[in-house]
Amino acid sequence: MKIGIVGAAGRMGRMLLAAVATEDGAHVAGGTEAAGHPDMGRDLGELVGSDAIGVALTSDARALFAACDAIIDFTVPAATAAHAQLAADTGTVLVIGTTGLDAAQQGVIAAAGQKAALVQAANYSVGVNLVLGLVEQAARILPDAYDIEVLEMHHHHKVDAPSGTALALGEAAAAGRGVTLGDVADKVRDGITGARKRGDIGFATLRGGDVVGDHTVMFAGTGERIEITHKAASREIFAAGAVRAAIWAGTQKPGLYSMKDVLGF
Ligand code: NAD
User: Fold this and answer.
1) What is the pLDDT of residues 37-86, one digit of tens each?
2) DSSP conformational letter for 99
3) What is the CATH number of the domain that holds 91?
4) Over 90: is that where the pLDDT of 265 sits?
5) Cα(10) to centroid of ligand 1, in Å?
6) What does the pLDDT read at residue 1?
7) 212 plus 246 within the same structural domain
8) pTM across the whole model
9) Residues lining ligand 1, judged by CB closer than 6 Å?
10) For the residues 109-129, what does the mean pLDDT come to?
11) Which atom of ligand 1 is nearest to the CA of 241?
12) Less Cβ around it within 10 Å: N or C end of the chain?
């Protein structure tokens, strides 16, 4: 399988280049970066400290989509929406890891799912996808006297908050309770906020250092507290999951799939 990496010089992009290189039956067929990136023209193998593979970093996404069976995208929301349109135009598999998309960008992705096989997940680790199921189950069992709070911490470079994974955990809790997250989410607390509203799902965001991604969902009742925690120690888990998703999607009909579909959960 010919796999292309957009945003190839980013933190996740470099992980993905390395992950594809170790996969039997797949190879890196190209990579792009935003125009003007300082690594433009560099060999993609050398970019990750390996031997040269004879493929240079470019800014031509259209040519990359035309040349590849699957593209993996951990970039920025505006670029991801443009890439989803290219996936629709070319029928190329697209695996989306970018978080922080707005409703219009999400609409472009949903429409592209009519024309090509797309996988989108806020988190490509097996563990987080298991935790999503556990959180939904706990929220279904526990009454709303148990206050749900989602706590996350990430490295100081992260630009969106709460994290896509925290929001996905909130969605899972809301689904378990049979409510819509948008109706009960409490994402910012500052000053005289008043008492906590029963049934709300609260979020707290920490940023600092090189934390890859910590998430805890708390169910705080009277006299007891249940906490479900996932800690990512390396970005390799996301890269491995995204490559697995690309290979899986290569055999699927057009559609917008989730990591749960890939894992068969
Ligand atoms: P990063 O800033 O290190 O990398 C993003 C790269 O995209 C940069 O190198 C940037 O130059 C490049 N880029 C921007 N516009 C582009 C364009 N038009 N074409 C090609 N490349 C372009 O960020 P990161 O830490 O690698 O994270 C990237 C995204 O992935 C974020 O939204 C983050 O939240 C998300 N993420 C998701 C998961 C997951 O499992 N779903 C895991 C980790 C990170």
Assistant:
1) 999 999 999 999 999 999 999 999 999 999 999 999 999 999 999 999 99
2) -
3) 3.40.50.720
4) no
5) 6
6) 97
7) no
8) 0.91
9) 6-7, 9-13, 32-34, 37, 74-76, 79, 97-100, 121-124, 164, 238
10) 96
11) 40
12) C
Q: Are residues 45 and 72 in the same domain?
A: yes
Per the residue annotation, which of 83, 154, 215, 230 is the catalytic one? 154
Look up tokens 């490295």; give the residue: 155
Mark whether 111 and 133 lie in a shared domain. no
Question: Is residue 149 domain-shared with residue 226, that is, in the same domain?
Answer: yes
For residues 52 and 145, give the distance between their C-alpha atoms in angstroms, rounded to a whole number. Answer: 58
The closest-lying atom of ligand 1 relative to the alpha carbon of residue 96 is 41
- Domain of residue 210 covers 126-232
Secondary structure letter of residue 56 according to DSSP = B
Residue 106 sits in the same domain as residue 174: no
Distance, CA of 247 to CA of 31 (rounded, Å): 17
Please indicate, yes or no, whether residues 85 and 56 belong to a single structural domain of this protein. yes
Q: Are residues 10 and 133 in the same domain?
A: no
69: tokens are 């069976």
